[in-house]
Amino acid sequence: MADIFEQTLYPYRRSPDQDAAAPVRHPVIVVGAGPVGLAAALDLALKDVPVLLLDDNDRVSTGSRAICFAKRTLEIMDRLGCGQPLVDKGVTWNKGKVFFDERKVYEFDLLAEAGHRRPAFINLQQYYFEAVLLERLRELQAEGRPVQIRGRNKVTGVTRDYSRVQLTVETPDGPYTLDADWLIACDGAKSPIRSFMGLDFHGRVFEDNFLIADVKMEADFPTERWFWFDPPFNRGQSALLHKQPDGVWRIDLQLGWDIDREVEMREENVIPRLKAMLGEEAKFSLEWISIYTFQCRRMERFAHGRVLFAGDSAHQVSPFGARGANSGIQDADNLAWKLKLVLDGTAPESLMESYNRERVQAADENILNSTRSTDFITPKSDISHVFRDAVLDLAEAHPFARPLVNSGRLSVPATHAGSDLNGEDALPGGPERTRPGAPAVDAPVGDGWLLESLGTDIVLLGINTSLPDMSGGDTLPVTVLTIETGDDRLGALRERYLGRNEQAVYLIRPDQHIAARWPTYDRKAISAALTAATGGMS
Amino acid sequence: MTDLITAPNLTDADGFYEALIAAHQGLTPEQSTALNARLILLLANHVGDRDILLDALRKARETGR
Ligand SMILES: Cc1cc2nc3c(=O)[nH]c(=O)nc-3n(C[C@H](O)[C@H](O)[C@H](O)COP(=O)(O)OP(=O)(O)OC[C@H]3O[C@@H](n4cnc5c(N)ncnc54)[C@H](O)[C@@H]3O)c2cc1C
């Protein structure tokens, strides 16, 4: 069987839209079937919002690109119905080691805490990730959900007026035109849609090159993230080793700025570099090599009328921290439920502005973290280099220096603490990690998990307290759920949601972010929070 | 909040100064710079408080020539 990324997974087929006399109008068109566009399309389809996904290609990403998928991404994929195949295929890891020169200076464990369904991270080639999402999309189609994907449909122009976006699309059969009420641009870092609309994309370019090689080998390195500062096999630079499924290893070697990319990419030059790292006897074959430079930048706004940017089209970060795909998936998570309510007319169009605000905040957090990592890994001045080495020297003997070692602050979801969608935090001394704006933290409930029981609507969650039926009255679908801390042997639910309280009531958004919380049920307070969480109309 | 102490606070000022210089004895300028960096990090951790550290950074930056 050919490798998955060489297969045509969604071949071009002529669509009736191409023969229509006037442009056919779709409620939502998503451009780009990368991880973010696929996630957005799945989420909308599951909410029965008709969605059309266009991509200029007909297969998954070539080369592995993103390999580290974070716990939050897996939780979102659970909600979309495809978390398990990702975990089954992926390599689960929690531990990492940091080396300086020839010494190990530091070791970490990302998820020392019990009581979570999903691990801190899995490693999985981006092409597998996309393939799993595509398969899920096929499943939804088979169930009759309103989702279409069109391969080799390349968007070549976008115009818009007040309530409509018009796209020109190039196909093997020539161009055609489509109308959309809403356009979600998930067309990647080079976003043609951003260019068509003449929009900015500002930030910082890092003057450095990294060689990435995916090699196939039988090796008994443990399933951990290994990071080297200034190792003997790559003097003055950094290196990273990470395991992927199918006996594939990701190797990332910093090369510096003044290099000849074309020369460095030649196998005759790559192989000796890898042998220096893996040992002369190591037997391996090259699966994919690439040299990349990176940037940390974002658009000023992610929402432009009825065009919403998500993923790399809206923001780009350095790979240290695995915040690219992971944060893009959170964009889709944030966007889908809001768009659903707006399309249903149960929330005002202005709710989409909260997408802009919340995800810009998240992007800034990701850019800040990835910029700091990059400045640690590649010091920009002599004195910065001196302090970096001082931290690494101290870290071996003195625990205090270990948190300063920054080889990438690995992706965690943003807490939208200041969001105007948040209602009150009325739970006295409620745990910090579940305050309004935070993504709900998983915990065991009976034989299952809290997050899996939340479903896809807005949830009113009663912990150790019963709640009246919320149906009727409000126009918004609210699911009422009650659970008991007695159902959790670990006591995690109590610790994560109650603190010292005996009971609590939480209002949780469809993207599983907490909107408000109280010690007891209070109909009026809940109504007010519900109104705030949905943009102030209901 | 406690402030950065700028009044005399060393138990043995001359003794400390002598030890500081002695710690750099025989080091190249590069080694001395590295030692200073480690020293700053050790002391910063001991202080801990963010406001005090930022205040110290500001005062150090303002008073140099
Ligand atoms: C070496 C490397 C390592 C990385 N490691 C990680 C990691 O470990 N974890 C992580 O989270 N992220 C990582 N990333 C980042 C990650 O790959 C990206 O953030 C992610 O792919 C972004 O997804 P996306 O869907 O926004 O865009 P893309 O994956 O770029 O998808 C864009 C899609 O849009 C389509 N498209 C473009 N133009 C048009 C058009 N005109 N018409 C129709 N379709 C179009 C393209 O064909 C493509 O399918 C890494 C990146 C690199 C390069």
List keywords for this structure.
heterodimer, A: 538 residues, FAD/NAD(P)-binding domain, D-Amino Acid Oxidase, Chain A, domain 2, Glutaredoxin, eight-stranded mixed beta sheet, 27% strand, B: 65 residues, mainly alpha, globular
Outline:
Chain A is α+β, with helices and mostly antiparallel strands and 538 residues long. Helices cover 28% and strands 27% of the residues of chain A.
Termini separation of chain A = 54 Å
Q: CATH topology of the largest domain in chain A, which one?
A: FAD/NAD(P)-binding domain
Integer tally of domains of chain A? 3
Mean pLDDT of chain A: 94
Give the number of helices of chain A.
12
Evaluate the radius of gyration of chain A: 24 Å
User: Helical percent range of chain A?
Assistant: 25-40%
What composes the largest sheet of chain A?
A: 8 strands, mixed
- The CATH architecture of the largest domain in chain A comes to 3-Layer(bba) Sandwich
Task: Provide the low-confidence segments of chain B as ranges.
Answer: none
Report the span from N to C terminus of chain B. Answer: 30 Å
Q: What global shape of chain B is seen?
A: globular
Named once each, the bound ligands are: flavin-adenine dinucleotide
Number of extended strands of chain A: 25
Q: Main β-sheet of chain B, in a few words?
A: none
User: Would you list the SSEs of chain B in sequence order as H and E?
Assistant: HHH
The share of residues in helices of chain B is 55-70%
CATH class descriptor name of the largest domain in chain A: Alpha Beta
Number of helices of chain B: 3
